[in-house]
Amino acid sequence: MAEITLEKVVKKYGAVGVVHGIDLSIAHQEFVVLVGPSGCGKSTTLRMIAGLEDITGGLVKIGGQVVNDLPPRKRNISMVFQNYALYPHMNVRDNLGFGLKIAGQSPAEITKRVNEAADILGLAPLLDRTPAELSGGQRQRVAMGRAIVRNPDAFLFDEPLSNLDAKLRGQMRAEIKKLHQKVKTTVVYVTHDQVEAMTLADRIVVMKDGHIEQVGTPMEVFNHPLSTFVATFIGSPPMNLLPGLIEGSTVRLADGTGVPVPDRLKQFVRDGMAVQLGIRPDDISPVGHGLSQDGPGAEVALTVDLAEPLGMESLIYTRLAGQEVQAKLYGPRIVQPGEVLTFRLALDRAHLFDAATGKSVRVQ
Amino acid sequence: MIRALTTRRTEMAPFLLLLPAIATMLFVVALPLVFSLWTSLTPYKLTKPDTLYDFIWFRNYTRIFGDWDFWEAFLRTIAFLTVAINLEFALGLGIALLINKITWGQRTLRTIMMFPMMFSPILVGFQFKFLFNDHIGVVNNALQSLGLTDQAIPWLVDANLAMFSITLAEVWMSTSVFAILLLAGLFAMPRDPLEAARVDGCNPWQVFRHITLPFLMPFAYIAMAIRSLDVARAYDLVAVMTDGGPAGRTELLWTLIARTGYDEAKMGQANAMAYISTILSVLFTWHFYRKLVAARRYMGGAE
Amino acid sequence: MTVSVESRASKQAKKVALWLATFLLMLVMCVPGLWVVLSAFRPNREILAKPPVWVPEELSLVNFGKIFGFGAEQVGIPVGSYFTNSLIIALTSTVMALIIGVAGGYSFARYRFRFKGGIFLGLMLFRAVPGIALSLPVFMMWSRLGLVDTKLGLIIVYVSLNVPFTIWLIDGFFRQIPQALSEAAQVDGCTRWQAFWKIEFPLAKSGIAAAGVFAFLTSWNEFALASQLTRSTDSKTLPVGLLDFTAQFTIDWAGMCAMAVIIIIPALILTFIVQKHLIAGLTFGGVKG
Questions:
Q1: Closest residue on chain C to A98 (Cα)
Q2: Picking from A43-57, B55-69, B141-155, B246-260, which range would have the lowest pLDDT averaged per residue?
Q3: Chains in contact with chain B (at least 3 beta-carbon pairs closer than 8 A)
Q4: Residues of chain C contacting residue B27, judged by C-beta atoms under 8 Å apart
Q5: For labeling, which of A258, A303, B216, C148 is most exposed (least CB within 10 Å)?
């Protein structure tokens, strides 16, 4: 069983703290993605799990066993590095088999496992090439092959797709997902790209400044963000945030416009509370051109500043309550700058955050 | 328990790896330097071994500083080094710029440039001694057959000409260090700022002065640091070419030290002079090493 | 029309001037050495001829034979001994300097630790001590230890002479190898020690070889310390031998040229092999090719 547990894990370089006490439980065979902006501590956390960084405080357990003092080779994990870290002086076959050779496996066993991994990843025709002779995507696959060959308890991925171009990134994402379905090993995956997080993860861990902001399935994190940071980090284009004040059951926005407080949130707000109203562009659409027209909504007339046609939908820039806001129009209609349209705000998908703490009003 | 042990062992690792290096340097350099200092405070002569334990404190030094021969050698050495190193830098820069413009056969040119660096200074000295010999040297031979002079020019005998010949030999030997490193710098220089400067209206001289030269300075400092480590190689040159003569006309600090210590057996005094030359060398190196560290950071080598 | 013709002509002129300058430069670089090398293969009378004989009329290995003690005119310079001494001393000190240098260079390249800058500076400053200045106390110490006129005595000194620069170069070479490779190997099952031997060391091999060549040449060419720490053919090296016989009143120029050639050849060969790596190491990989 390869669950990974982090208990109050801390990392400091001298006096500088980089990770400030994280608690996380990763279940056996789960695909967990650590996501967050540069410097949030996600790579450091991964490297502490791997044993490449000393753990300043707290415990890391793999399969129930505390691994704080174990060197990487005793933790039975594999890692795929950002720059692949393929051994340049060995060919693909030797790169794949290196770990097994060190472990003292018989040549027959090594050949068998190397060929298996090569088959899974389509590397068979490349076995005699050296890393210098491979393309970026091929190198990436060799790195993954090297990881699966050893049958570890967990795979650790450190931003493996950052060095690939957009199209290749999409292909490799799908390959990684298929691999996980096939090989079913626990995965801890680090990235700064929220699209990768959303598409690959069983659960997402959003990190910021050495803390965990929120843990949840992609849909949980997308639909029920617990802070403005998570709300704006996950989802593209990012959620619109509008400052306002609670007046009874209305959110009074900066220019006086009133938006009804969504029913489900009424119990969490008080009169006079300063809040931020959060609503995704997907949830603001011209009437008749939105995702759904049922459920509680509020209608408001807005002037279009700019429209970016994307084919079957357009991204619209407009102003609400004196602030620039993005909205989406679904359908082939072309919209001109200056047009005034009635927009519908889907209230059941709107969020309220405490203006001072940034936290969702549901978490008080 | 286990945790503490492993952490401490990892912390000790770099020091353990450096132990042989530090031990060697302490035994072969630091210890002798201490010994040298001691000796410089005594009137030690190899012929009178017990004088090693008489302490005359700084009398050797005051005697040296009052000795005109010492000052002559000292100043001559300083002048020699100043002229030589400045020439090496200027010529090295010129050569680097020249080779940079050649598009064909650069690797061969660069290899040829490295040869003078790899010659033993003794060899270089011998080579020029051979060429500049007044009777059989090829230089005089050629000059005479071409009719440019009718006398044998005393390249290695006349005071000024001898210093000139020695300086020439030194420059010939060490210009390559600058040339190679500055050339490396020119290779590494990004083209965009140069083009931007030209578009902005700079003439070639301005482009050189404001864009190229600042970029090259780190490489120049690396060269200076390397040069400063081996400044005393010139001793080998002089020892072969003139050995400080004739009659002390080309006496440099180092030949004076060798003469005083080994020929005249005045070890105490020689060590005092040696200490002065050591302090100078060390200061010189330290100065350029600091510039080198700055250059290293600039080049992106992390601490 | 006129403008473009002018600029093409001036471009041509510039190119010619460039090539001329380069040619002259190469001439200045090579001719002195070439003249010595050439003279080594010519009999004494040709060398001493006035006016100078530019094109050799007779080439032979007579001079080489002479100095080794063969042939009709035996000069009796124990060049053979000098050569073996130089070789043994240079090789041994190089190997030891490399071992110490790889350890030290690795520690600088891979670890962060206190006093790092200070230790590096210290090593460099120790190297800055002039050879002749160091030779005085070392001579006194070595005579008490019985190490004067021994190969071992010189080897020990040369190791310390080479350690700083070797560490500097090897530090640079190790930095060019991404640390992720060692980490990947450790994740793959290696201890740090294994990762070093199987991954980092093979990749740094050519750089280490270059540092070795540099150390070898430093020892091969060294004079100031050798001249004082050696007394007889038990330990005298080639540079000392060259000076000894050049300082004589009547010099056998041809023979000396032959000896010079013997000293030069290893240097030339090794330089050619190593030049690219040396520059990369000196500039910490800041330059490619």
A1: C188
A2: B141-155
A3: A, C
A4: 160
A5: A303
Comparing CB atoms, the residue among C188, C191, C202 nearest residue A71 is C191
Amino acid residing at B77: T
Tokens 């034979």 identify what position? C65
Q: What is the mean pLDDT of chain A?
A: 91
Alpha-carbon distance C138 to C127, whole Å?
A: 14
pLDDT over 80 (residue B149): no
ipTM comes to 0.84
Q: Are A68 and B6 inside 8 Å of each other by CB?
A: no
* 3-class DSSP assignment, residue A239: coil
Helices (H), A17-135: 42-50, 92-102, 107-121
Given an 8 Å threshold on Cβ–Cβ distance, is B286 in contact with C126? no
Chains near A (3 or more Cβ pairs under 8 Å) = B, C
Distance from CA of C182 to the nearest CA of A (A): 9
Closest C-alpha among A296, C133, A341 to residue B278: C133
d(CA C37, CA C261): 6
Residues C147 and C172 in one domain: yes
Distant-in-sequence, close-in-space partners of A119: CB < 8 Å, separation ≥ 6: none
Using the Cβ of C202 and the Cβ atoms of chain A, whether some distance falls under 8 Å is answered with yes
On whether both C49 and C178 belong to a single domain, the answer is no
**Is A57's pLDDT higher than 60?**
yes
pLDDT band for C286, please (50, 70, 90 cuts): very low
Torsion of CA B236, B75, B140, C79, to 10 degrees: -10
**C25 and C92 both lie in a single domain:** no
Chain B residue numbers with beta carbons less than 8 Å from the beta carbon of C117 are: 293, 303
Cβ pair C153, C263 in contact under 8 A: no
- Structural domain B68-299, CATH architecture: Orthogonal Bundle (1.10)
